[in-house]
Amino acid sequence: MADKTAHKAKTRARILDEAAMAMRARGSDGIGVSELMKRAGLTHGGFYAHFASRDDLVAHAVDRMFQDSAAMVARFLGDAPDGPGLAALIDFYLSEPVMRAADRGCPLPALSGEAARMPAAARARFEAGVAGFQNAIARALMAMGRADAETLAASVLAELVGTMALARSFADPAAGAAMLAAARKALKERLGLAPPFQGAEDLPA
Domain coordinates of the chain in residue numbers? Predict the structure, then answer.
């Protein structure tokens, strides 16, 4: 029984990993159950052993994406968020490697435009993910002594997400990279943080 339960959990996780990648790349409309199950190496009929409906899958896929996002934020801001951690987060988030990895990482640039049209459960999970990211930024700003930390955190998050979404929209990757570089510099200067990084080799592993 324990082996069967573990196998089911592993299979469910594989489906969610595939769904999360598909949603980041093509939005929630990009998830077709048949195609998704095929990519996961499973039969279409097995879907309902794991999810009640397609809407249920979308909601849990949003959760799965924000698990990755929370891990990314924790890597830089963790238990003791501060200015250097926030600077490193900005450098990482607005980097060319992240721009090229649209099917991984933070779901906000990919899904913000369609969140309002998601099923209610998925939208609630999306909003919780936004709040978690924003609160982590606010804690770092509070540690820097900013009295306007909560309001400023909303602005910082919007700039991070909006810049990445626009950078990915360019047909020419060089144009997207230039936008990222300009935003990194301007945002860090606005927050009184360290100068922008010198190159991709300076990004955390």
Answer: 53-193
The whole model's pTM is what? 0.85
**Could you give the CA distance from residue 123 to residue 116 in angstroms, rounded to a whole number?**
7
The series of mean pLDDT values per 10 residues for the chain, 205 residues long, is: 74 86 80 79 79 88 91 93 95 96 89 89 94 96 95 97 96 97 96 66 43
Burial of 89 (0-12, 13-18, 19+ CB in 10 A): buried
Task: Look at the domain 53-193 and name its fold.
Answer: Tetracycline Repressor; domain 2 (1.10.357)
Residue 193 zone, left/alpha/beta (φ > 0; ψ -120 to 50; rest)? beta
In 3D, which of 157, 63, 51, 46 has the Cα closest to residue 118?
A: 63
Residues 6+ away with beta carbon under 8 Å from 115: 123, 126, 127
